[in-house]
Amino acid sequence: MSKVFDSSKPIFMQVRELIEDQIVNDQLKEGDQAPSTNQLVSFYKINHATVSKGINQLVEEGILFKRRGIGMFVAEGAKETLMGQRKEAFVDNYVKSLMQEANKLGITQSEVIELIKNTKGSEF
After folding, report:
1. What is the mean pLDDT of residues 2-28?
2. Which residues contact 112 (CB under 8 A, 6 or more apart)?
3. What are the distances in angstroms from CA 53 to CA 8, 14, 31, 41?
4. Is 65 helix (H, G, I), strand (E, B) or coil?
5. How many CB atoms neighbour CB 58 within 10 A?
6. Pairing of strands 64-67, 71-74
7. For 19-34, what is the HEC assignment?
8. Is there a single domain that holds both residue 52 and residue 68?
9. Residue 98, in any domain of the structure
10. Do the Cβ atoms of 23 and 63 come closer than 8 Å?
11. Whose CA is closest to 80, among 68, 92, 88?
12. CA–CA–CA angle 76, 89, 12 (5° rounding)
């Protein structure tokens, strides 16, 4: 198995995220052909069913669509959809817990904003 994958989450999710990242980073644009299941199986040396599960989830969510006999393609609005999902996940995974901890420490919202602005590497 490739070094790209780790044991912290299922491989099919990592395959899915790999394709999502390519869309979000503009490596794959709307209408572009996505890597085929066979290409992914061959390149990463992973099980066909595992790859198919990740890709099929993207098809079910309208991120990819199938053209019979040709392959998988990036759907119109895929990047926008993924960006929206990731923003929601960012809020759920980071912002909510940040604000909960700030509240425990008596740090106001405006103080949090200032802390973020003054954090090295922040471009806020």
Report:
1. 87
2. 98, 99, 102
3. 18, 11, 21, 12
4. strand
5. 22
6. antiparallel
7. HHHHHHCCCCCCCCEC
8. yes
9. yes
10. yes
11. 88
12. 70
Q: Give me the residue label for tokens 């923003």.
A: 87
- Provide the domain count of the chain: 2
Task: Grade residue 122 by pLDDT with cuts at 50, 70 and 90.
Answer: low
Say how far apart CA 116 and CA 15 lie, in whole Å: 33
User: Domain of 22?
Assistant: 11-76
pLDDT band with cut points at 50, 70 and 90 for residue 123: low
Phi, psi (deg, nearest 5) at residue 86:
-70, -35
| pLDDT tens digits for range 48-103 | 999 999 999 999 999 999 999 999 999 999 999 999 999 999 999 999 999 999 99
Q: Do residues 32 and 71 lie in contact, with contact meaning Cβ atoms separated by under 8 Å?
A: no
